[in-house]
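hey so u asked for the seq, here:
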Amino acid sequence: MVGYKILKRKIIFFLALEGGFFNKSPQLFYYPYSFLYARLFSFKPSSIRGAVLSLVKDGLVDKIYKDKMALFRLTSKGRDILLSFFQVTLGLKTGWDGAWRLVLIKEKGNKELELKKVRQILKHLGFRKFSRGIYFSPLKVEDKLKNTLLEERISAKIAVIKTGEMFLIDNQELANQFWALEGITRDFNSLISRSSGLLRRFKHRKRLTDKGKNEFFLILDFYFTLLERTPAIPKNLVFNEIPLVLAQKAVLGLCLEAKKYGL
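ran it, structure tokens below
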């Protein structure tokens, strides 16, 4: 089930990435199954087809036929749901208001199923586990947390505390320690380097090798994984700014060049 959910998320992501969403194109493009088969190389074609049709049924992907070939693109509903996949969209574009949100969960006496739901909600909203029963986040999401708990009808006993700066530890050090920001920044720089290097090879050789083709698809998959890993952290809590814009520019430039080779 987890693998199937990831597959559907990747389908939406790749249709958006190369379909015009990330470069703010007013019109998104349609792609055939072969486009998705190549990018989703770790999944069986039958699984990909099933996931695509499920997305079509849910109204997230549009399907048309051209010359008897099925073609797909994101719908406006699919575009809206895309950004919810990545926590990074919650925080990096905003400044920190100086407050930490602490969530205290009384695990004893609460039903395990409800506790599991609470942990999932906290993870989705960008919280990190500090210790058993204690989660924290610098994001202004307390209202969203409250509304989500009410919508899910969760009655587990929890408390939310809003506090100022932590004592005996630097705020940036705290964020870096629990959100592994240095490693993420390093991986984004690696992505930029790999994308730029492959782009130069494409332009220099004027032809596509199997090695270059495989590297292109691996880079796209790496980009998706990195965006999923990147936490929602306000920009003024990050030591070295995560190069999200440069990475997007590098990947989109590579995708544009790859189109010349029919990828």
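The first strand starts at residue 31 and ends at 32. The chain has three domains: 2-85, 89-164, 179-259.
lmk if thats what u needed
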